[in-house]
Amino acid sequence: MKNIFAIVFVLIGYSGIGQVNLNEYKYIIIPKTLGDFKEENQYLTSTLLKHLFVQKGFTAVYEDAIPEDLYLDRCLGLTARLIDNSSMFRTKVQILVENCKGEKVFSSIEGTNKIKEYKESYKQGITDAMSSFNDLNYSYKEEAVTDKPITISFKNDVKTLETDSAKLSTDTENRSKVVKQTSSLEDQSYKSMEPVASDIRQAAPKSKIESKLSAVNDGEVLYAQPIANGYQLIDSAPKVVMKLLNSSTKNVFIAQADNKSGMVFQKDGIWVFEYYTGTELIQEELRIKF
Hints:
With 290 residues, the protein is of the alpha+beta class. It folds into two domains: 132 residues, Rossmann fold; 77 residues, no CATH class. It has five helices and 15 strands. The strands form three sheets. A seven-stranded mixed beta barrel has the order 9-10-11-12-13-14-15. Helix 2 links the parallel strand 1 and strand 2. The chain is rod-shaped, with a radius of gyration of 48 Å. It starts with a helix and ends with a strand.
């Protein structure tokens, strides 16, 4: 009778401690290789253990497929361990869960059987051991965090008009920048550093560019013939008078005529040849027939 009460007391102790501790963890991490097995998921032990934890309300994940929050904070999860104390004639397994520091949080009863076939014996042993989790009423409870820093955004903050006192403070500060004042027993002086308007006026620049408008070839009509990169203008002789090379702007050409180089463009419906002779800007009217 005493033995029965002792077993009941131990099981109640497991249940109470486990419920308090396990509710603090969001995940159960299942290793792909359990216990002393040399192969991944040997005898389907990892698959079975994950399935049984999910059945009991836990969020079980494999160690190589953890979610992002668990990846950032490993302490959100517990890691399941398989303690294998099997002998030649009896399979003995126990389920242990550890926190991120490797500390034991909960351990199950030992599941035992005498089944000879390994796959079935471990399946039965793990299932029996997992019965310790049956009455835990697990429910993950995320703790409310109240000590996190509060981030305040001033985007679209309302700006107010400057008050009279603020304006006075600004005026005083600005005035202090333009006044030099000394106050002592030996020297008491006040000197304004405020800029004084100058009566010096800048003379209007004298233009060295003069322009005049005259007709090329006494106003004779020049005929535009297309060439590879523009036009050539010919007179009635016929003689090539000028070449107009295309630019990036419409109705503006780079002009070459004898020893003159300049621009040909249309201004108020008139074609103008503009070029420099020394510092003098020359403009000549062209009558072009395209």
